[in-house]
């Protein structure tokens, strides 16, 4: 390990200046240059972004096409909905149970476990081949576990290596990397699937994802081991939400509303593109164009968004990502789906960056919530997954009765309008000062 560290960029291996401060998380204290580094992302932040970028690339290569792969085996919206629902339930349970591991033991091993279990997921898909659809319950559980392990550890480390001064920038870069991966990787996957025999094409992209996840595990070893302290409080979420004066009641409702949309739109749009085109290359082109727009938007929003603009930016973003659903009522085809994708790519960063930054600033609002950062991050993820599970359950119930185009349009509009509810609940904590004052239970 030491030989590898010697050759690694030294600016990514800082330690003293990257210790979390007591009140806000983040890389220690004030910049030594008198404030000139405000907003900068230092070594561990950049390395964490690298690991996140590799995971995003691996998921973008194959994740976009997993639901298509299952759909081609059995053209059933309900089955895709159940696969997604099982995924979210497994993710929520993993967050809650793994909280003890992250709090009291080695959070970096939890992060690596998430990447490794993701690799296992694609290994099993390769192993099952065309019969993978028969194992959708097992695959949903494994994919949910991988996401739970990775994102719990990632979010705790993210809190510790950022602060209110650079959190929006970190989220902007994270979105930019995700958009870059979403732009290039699905196009490559679509190209390979179309130009190879389809079965071979899927095997190739699943294998490449497996390799990228392994590389992600290797990079994670350059993230320094972070100190564990305190005992995990299993029922903090219940204790916190019972308190009448806590801001977390309102925030949890906002997060549930955010997750409600994510649960369905996370799989449905890509699937609709394939259903209406019947061509993986078209899906790759869709991802290329929409993610290119998202990449530019995340780059600009990450640089320009300041805490004082969060409330207005979140409202604009929420309104616009609802309005772009309206063209579906004329006709659902590749063009209207592309209009939707471009609109979401353009305005989603205005909504998502303030949502994420505001919640993590709230966690850093006082000493008690910082001490219990793992539990509050678990509470955040549980709220998101309650929303995802609820949204997906509504989807399953509706498609069990009808999959008529107009019914599906109204379903998407209803579910897709929940960002407005998220803004309503989050508007009071959409600034750094309010979040700081309200933090903690």
Automatic annotation (TrEMBL):
Residue ranges, annotated region (Disordered): 13-36
Basic and acidic residues composition bias: residue spans: 14-36
Keywords: Membrane, Transmembrane, Transmembrane helix
Pfam families: MFS_1
UniProt-annotated location(s): Cell membrane
Gene3D superfamilies, sorted: MFS general substrate transporter like domains
InterPro entries: MFS, MFS_trans_sf, Sugar_transport-like
Keyword Lipid biosynthesis listed: no
Domain of life of the organism encoding this protein: Bacteria
Principal cellular location given in the protein's record: membrane
Membrane topology, record value: Multi-pass membrane protein
TM segment ranges: 47-71, 77-98, 110-129, 135-158, 170-196, 202-223, 251-274, 286-305, 312-330, 336-353, 382-401, 407-426
Protein name: Major Facilitator Superfamily protein
Organism: Paenibacillus konkukensis
